[in-house]
Amino acid sequence: MYSKILNERNPLRLFEHSIHGGLGPGNIGVVVARHGIGKTAFLVGIALDDAMRGRKVLHVSLDKTVDHVREFYDEIFMDLAHSAGLEDLATARLEMERHRMIHTYVGGTFTTDKLRHSMQFLKDVAHFEPACLILEGFAFEHATLADVEALRQLAVEFNVELWMSALTHRGVAADDHGIPAPLTKLGAAIAVIVQMVDDDGTVKLSLLKDHDNPNVAALALALDPSTMLLVKK
User: Fold this and answer.
1) For the chain, which residues score pLDDT lower than 50?
2) CB 30 within 8 A of CB 192
3) pLDDT tens digits, one per residue of 36-54
4) How many angstroms separate the CA atoms of 77 and 23, rounded?
């Protein structure tokens, strides 16, 4: 049960066109922003977009409880439903929840091998094979290229699109493509990088890396900070 309005106002549709079909299975996409801009909301928006179109999603948080993550989903789902004028909320919500699972690894307990084991268990026992994996709270500032490459290999192994978030800070250095720390030394393992910045009451979303394409589309989108949908013109 997916609204035409949601589809048309979802920024992912424009990004999919700009990055030649989207992120793609086996690839990592990262949204980078300063604290409080809406990285979690954006990732939840990606997950809801998939789940409401019948694609399975696994959301993994390293710094929030399951209840906290679920509250994000409930809040953003209701904002989306109100914006799109969805009529049968109960059915739409049940369908979304049926296609979404939430796992957490709080207190520094996360490893890529633990995630691999959990995903294999979901596949073998629960017959739950996600098309999209959301991983939030990963400490990019302490990560090596080998750490991120291991996650990319996991994405390849399970044939998922892996979306992550990275925290950056005001005034940090950026490379020639505008990619800020802490991602500047990790780009070889990341296919797509998008940046979020506050822009006078809206959230501006821009594309910094598009796979190996040297000519990244100059795409800057204005999003509603509550729904992460394109602002109505």
Assistant:
1) 1
2) yes
3) 888 888 898 889 888 888 8
4) 23
Global pTM reads 0.89
Task: State which amino acid sits at residue 202.
Answer: T
Find the DSSP H helices in the chain.
4-9, 11-18, 39-51, 66-84, 89-98, 112-124, 145-158
Q: In what order do the strands lie in the sheet with 202-210?
A: 100-104, 57-61, 132-136, 161-167, 28-33, 192-199, 202-210, 220-223
Q: Which residues contact 48 (CB under 8 A, 6 or more apart)?
A: 73, 76, 77, 80, 96
The label of the residue with tokens 């996650």 reads 151
Dump pLDDT digits (tens) for 67-105: 999 998 988 888 777 776 777 778 878 888 999 999 999
User: Could you tell me the sign of the dihedral formed by the alpha carbons of 154, 14, 38, 96, in that order?
Assistant: negative
Compute CA distances 59 → 18, 20, 64, 134, 173, whole Å.
Answer: 25, 25, 11, 5, 30
